[in-house]
Specification:
The protein is about 80% helix and about 0% strand. The protein is an all-alpha fold and about 50 residues long. It starts with a helix and ends with a helix.
Length: about 50
């Protein structure tokens, strides 16, 4: 399952970076969602 995390994290970061470039006002929400996502995936080890 760690292979899934290795693929998911860069994709989420890339999407977040593009969204921040397009709509800078979303920065707080994107960072918060990214941290929540990475935290949940880290806690459950990608078993979702």
């Amino acid at each position: 399952m760690t292979a899934n995390l290795i693929v998911i994290q860069p994709l989420v970061a890339l999407i977040a970076g593009v969204l921040i470039l397009i709509v800078p006002r979303l920065l707080n929400y994107i960072v918060a969602l990214y941290l929540i996502l990475v935290g949940i995936l880290g806690l459950f080890g990608g078993r979702l």
